Amino acid sequence: MFVDRVRIYVAAGGGGNGCVSFRREKYVPTGGPDGGDGGDGGSVIVSVSPRLHTLMDLRRRKHYKAPNGHSGRGKNQHGRNGNDIIIEVPPGTVVCDSSSGGVIADLVSPGQSVVVAAGGKGGKGNARFATATRQTPRFAQPGRVGEERWIDLELKLLADVGFVGLPNAGKSTLLSRISAARPKIADYPFTTTRPHLGVVDLGDGRSFVAADIPGLIEGAHLGSGLGHEFLRHIERTKVLVHVVDMAGIGEGHDPVKDFEIVREEMKLYNPELALRPAIIACSKMDLPEARENYEKTRDILSKLGCETCPISGVTGEGVKELLEAIAKALDL
Question: Residue 277 is part of which domain span?
Answer without folding.
Answer: 161-330
